[in-house]
Amino acid sequence: MRIGQNPEKENKDIKIENYHRIIVPVYIPNFEGYFSNSLDIFKLCIESLLLTVHAKTRITIYNNNSHKLVKEYIDLKYSESKFIDQVFHSKENLGKINAILAASKGNLEPLITITDADVLFKNGWQKAVEKVIVNFPEAGMVSPVPSSKVYKMFTSNNWYYGFFKGNLLFQNVIDAEAMHKFDLSLGNDKLMYKPIHLKKYLVIRNKKNKQEAVMGCGHFVATLKREVFDYGSNKPAFVKIVGGVERIFIDTPNEKLGLLRLATKENYAYHMGNKIENWMYEEFSKLKTHTIDNSYKATDFKFKPVSKIGMLIGKLLLKIISRSSLLEIKLLNYLGLDNKEY
């Protein structure tokens, strides 16, 4: 039996004051072996995030069945911080992508940053990323961590834009040490970056406002326009972090929508991995404890994909470059790269 009418029916519209949502999935089942330092790493991630976000930001933490001490830490930060306004505790590990989908579909902010739980944020990351998105209205995905090796990774729209609406050119890497730290953090037997990759990266420029950004980006930390999730796949992910699942739910939707994939020229975040090192605490100590003003408002982030013809041209350009190493080398030389081994 219901008596009376729910007063919320008269208050139909939902209005939000914030425009930037950050989603942090975390899975730390124990503190042994691979996960022995993971809680300390996660704490550095969250604490650095809280010190570097502006007032129009809110944070969602999705706990994928982590150890009870991790849950206790999350609940503590939820009670302490106004920025962390959503916490999900799952009794099963549903994987990174499903955590992101659950949080993104249920929120209204035009910008959604997805980040792994082992990222150390630096001062200024949010302002720098948002500036790139505002000055490249066609941008759908922007990372605060540049990479010199992803200029062909889901960047067909970039190639069209670079040749027909902007400029493409190689520039000197601003922070080679940060890129090398990222390489080391991956723990691979062989380093990813050759010396030339730490010297030069491919930059795309907006002709009108002169804004520049690095071509392409990874997705261990990246800010996306919410349309990438709205118009992407509506299916759940049945695998956790392998099998190309991020490609299906993040990379492909961004490219199919006609959006650019970019990174800031400066490095504004570090991938820590699963082992604590002294430099992480040194970087954390540099963070400033002060209120950060936001530079923009929600309406500043336009959804402006490249044209369908532009998308087709970009796909053709990228296909030609990818299939012919000789043409690729000649093109990179034309864009300002002297070294043939990029």
What does this structure look like?
- This protein has helices at 38-52, 68-80, 96-105, 125-135, 156-164, 176-185, 227-230, 245-256, 278-285, 308-323, 325-334, and strands spanning 20-26, 57-64, 84-90, 111-115, 119-121, 139-143, 166-172, 200-206, 212-215, 221-225, 260-263, 269-271.
- The chain is an alpha/beta fold.
- The chain has one domain: Spore Coat Polysaccharide Biosynthesis Protein SpsA, Chain A.
- The strands form 2 sheets. A 10-stranded mixed sheet has the order 3-2-1-4-10-6-11-9-8-7, sandwiched between helices. It has a two-stranded antiparallel sheet with strand order 5-12.
- The radius of gyration is 21 Å and the shape is globular.
- The model has no long low-confidence stretch (mean pLDDT 91).
CATH topological fold name: Spore Coat Polysaccharide Biosynthesis Protein SpsA, Chain A
Shape: globular
Number of structural units classed as domains: 1
CATH class: Alpha Beta
Q: Between the first and last Cα atoms, what is the distance in angstroms?
A: 71 Å
For the largest beta sheet, what order do the strands appear in spatially? Answer: 3-2-1-4-10-6-11-9-8-7
Helix content: 25-40%
